[in-house]
From TrEMBL:
Family membership noted in the UniProt record: Belongs to the iron/ascorbate-dependent oxidoreductase family.
Keyword Metal-binding: yes
Protein name per UniProt: Flavonol synthase
Keywords: Iron, Metal-binding, Oxidoreductase
Residue ranges of every copy of the Fe2OG dioxygenase domain listed in the record: 171-271
Keyword Calcium: no
InterPro entries named in the record: DIOX_N, IPNS-like_FE2OG_OXY, IPNS-like_sf, Oxoglu/Fe-dep_dioxygenase_dom, Plant_2OG-oxidoreductases
């Protein structure tokens, strides 16, 4: 898809005929909620969830421990740094350069679930309550993600577990990425994250109040506005492929602010590395497969090296 790339700004107000959907999960009309989730995933690839069942207190504590980590001296943050020779993504990384084309961010990546894939060497020991808060948030996030995956499965006319099983069932991986985008005196020189679609299945994002996330729709960039207590959901490449193109993988990017620090806490739901990512077979009775089968690890390898996949 061709999109505007000449500016970090959103389109003029006249183009805001549509807004990113906001879905209230507490609505007793479950069929209405399900239709809204499916429609948003087909048309936008992004939506906000409110009244999602995760308490504002827990989200506040998650933000607090993440913020406290990034306030530590660099030497302490490097205690959980990504090793230079690592082929994996886990650990703390930093890239804060006034160089055009470079990103402006520091990040902390680590796996959350299943327990068999967790390496606590990449979980900060400071602040001391980081692990307790993050484990509590993981339990709640797992419930929420399985609910949304179930809705999306039924939106394909399939059993509620279809997408979860297509991603690996109980071996589906959950990954935390905390993004810190400090104030940048030269904000026009860098993006916090360049435009991309996520190579994972689906992401659940909370942020601080500083805007910066933008999504592309109909060849225009739209600001994703901050909604207190909301969780923003974005559809990734794996759901696009499993759904045989019915659900949209949203193109997005992150801008940085000259004066304000922006932070975000996405949890990525990711297929097991050995799972073959392909359109769910039940969908192929009416439409031919649009995507070739490929293991999750090979798919990521090709995407990261910008090699052809299909």
């Amino acid at each position: 898809m061709e999109v505007e790339r000449d500016s970090h700004t959103s389109p003029p107000p006249s183009l805001f005929a549509e807004t990113i959907p906001i879905i209230d999960l507490s609505n007793p009309d479950e069929e209405l909620v399900a239709r809204a989730v499916v429609k948003a995933s087909q048309e936008w690839g992004i939506f906000h969830l409110v009244n999602h069942g995760i308490t504002t207190d827990l989200i506040s504590r998650l933000k607090e421990v993440g913020s406290e980590f990034f306030e530590l001296p660099t030497t302490e943050k490097k205690a959980v740094a990504k090793p230079d020779d690592s082929q994996d993504y886990e650990g703390y990384t930093r890239n804060l350069q006034y160089t055009e084309g470079e990103v402006w961010a520091e990040n902390l990546f680590h796996r959350l679930w299943p327990q068999s894939c967790i390496n606590f060497d990449y979980w900060p020991k400071n602040p001391p309550h980081y692990r307790k808060v993050t484990e509590e948030y993981t339990r709640e996030m797992k419930k929420l993600s399985e609910r949304i995956l179930g809705v999306l499965s039924e939106g394909l006319g399939l059993q509620r577990e279809a997408l979860k099983e297509g991603l690996g069932g109980e071996t589906v991986e959950y990954v935390m990425r905390i993004n810190n985008f400090p104030p940048n005196p030269q904000p026009d020189s860098n993006l916090g994250l360049p435009e991309h679609t996520d190579i994972i299945a689906i992401a659940f994002i909370v942020t601080n109040e500083v805007p910066g996330l933008q999504v592309s729709k109909d060849d225009h960039w739209f600001d994703v506005h901050y909604i207190p207590s909301a969780i923003t959901v974005t559809i990734g490449d794996q759901i696009l492929r499993l759904s045989n193109g019915k659900y949209k993988n949203v193109l997005h990017r992150v801008t940085v602010d000259k004066e304000k620090q922006r932070m975000s806490w996405p949890v990525f739901v990711d297929a097991n590395p050995d799972v073959v990512i392909k359109p769910l077979p039940e969908l192929n009775t009416d439409n031919p497969s649009k995507f070739k089968p490929i293991t999750c690890k090979d798919f990521k390898y090709c995407r990261l090296l910008k090699l052809p996949v299909d």
